[in-house]
Fold:
Amino acid sequence: QMQAKESGGGLVQPGGSLSLSCVASGSTLPIKAMGWYRQAPGNQRELVAEIRTGDIINYLDSVKGRFTISRGNAKNTVYLQMNSLKPEDTAVYYCNVEVPGFGFWGHGTQVTVSS
Structure:
């Protein structure tokens, strides 16, 4: 069974940092992309950052310069380092793994930025 399992997240003060991790398992298909999405209450889910085949990286404009996405050596792990966090970064963060033909999601991890 294909799974994407997130870890990390939590409560942090504005200006603080958090790190998220995601491990994909259960798929024999090659991973085309791994990424992080987020969804705040009342908002649509949006792409925060992704790494695609060939190490092509895309970021949401509002996180550029503050967030860094990276892959682990095993290539089935993706990390998101979040610095200079703002209250508007508060959301549930989801890991997405794309394989040929479809993608699958983690259950999400809550990130709350508040003083």
Notes: The longest strand covers residues 91-99. The chain has a mean pLDDT of 95.
